Amino acid sequence: MADYQYDLVIIGSGPAGEGAAMSAVKQGWSVAVVDDRPMVGGNCTHLGTIPSKALRHAVRRMVQFNTMPMFRAVGDPRWFSFPDLMKSADDVIRKQVEGRTKDYARNRIKLHLGRASFTDTHHISIKQPDHTRETIKARFFLIATGSSPYHPDDVDFDHPCIFDSDSILSLDRTPRNIIIYGAGVIGCEYASIFAGLDTRVDLVNSRSGLLSFLDDEISDALSYQLRDLNVTVRHNEEYDHIETRNNGVTMELKSGKRIHAEALLWSNGRSGNTKNMGLEELGLVVNERGQLEVNGHYQTTVPHIYAAGDVVGWPSLAGAAYDQGRFAAAHMCGAAREYHVEDVATGIWTIPEISFVGKTESELTEQQVPYEIGRAYFKNIARAHISGEEVGVLKILFHQETLEILGVHCFGAEASEIIHIGQAIMNQSGDANTIEYFIRTTFNYPTMAEAYRIAAINGMNRLCRESRKLVI
To answer: What is the tally of helices (H) and strands (E) in the chain?
Structure first.
């Protein structure tokens, strides 16, 4: 017999697991969360989003201090080591864990510590830290175990100079130079972080450009900014092999180039955390990256076993994972309102950051959609002058005839906040989704939100130039 029995058992306490737990318990369900880490929050809180973004914030503040004339008038630049800056994340993690733990307790959600594996479609066995086991039965399950950095077999991650995006957080020094292999989101984020620490960065990219899913103009802006930070970006390169030594590594590329550095950060993809969970015995098949396939309700091929978050792949964003968990639980409970996560504003925390929602210029051109562009450059915005964050642009793509907003792209400080204004208008139905909204709406001054008015007027003036009915 099972030691415990619940309506819903969630494996993983990251954003997807938390979202599902809070949603289901509000429907009166008995809910338990299983995690092999003694503190809740999942990889998002302890290894990914929270610590890396706290580190980025600390580096950004240090760079601002060292480059702002007002501070230079009272003292010399100050530099902090990588470990010192990481300490700033500790307090953030503590507060996140405390808040989430209180939420679980207040909602009477039971937490089980240990590693879970399925014994059949309605039971899991949990191996606890003391190596004892307990068995849990549930009507429904949600697999929300997240993902981990992908490790190729021929890279020695036990070497003290080789890191992945998890272990890099425990780096005990500031390297003078570093190789970052993989120019995806994580690679570009860490390239700008280390460049801010005055570390020489070699960013090795197997593709012809950075983050090909971005609008071309934004990708170009990122490339320029990284090079301005003295990052060497090497496109169309793949590693052949890696040589290690006591004080560093050498990466030989297939092109014959050899790159030397004190450290190597491998950031070439992630894999779903699905190993040793007994999924094969249930008939659940994972892809080559350990990810589970789900339908529009986040159900696996076993209808009462759901999956959400990074373990299902796209979009692999913490905010989206939280909503995926909520909506999966809504479907289980038969709630009246249930959604599928599709409208996702992507956030990339480089320095400066990037965010976008909707179509890119390339996509609209390929689809033969007649569009126009409105731009607002941060260098022309009063709030950016005040904050000293003048590098950036807000770009609105809209239909030439209907004026419907088709895409919003932002590169610059607070882009991930700014983007949601555009997202809100894009989500309006019919005539309510129009670029004219930003022209007839009064924005506070000085704010970064004012960029929407500037971009909208810029775009409408481009559209109306032939008729000379320009927007003033």
So the answer is: 13, 22
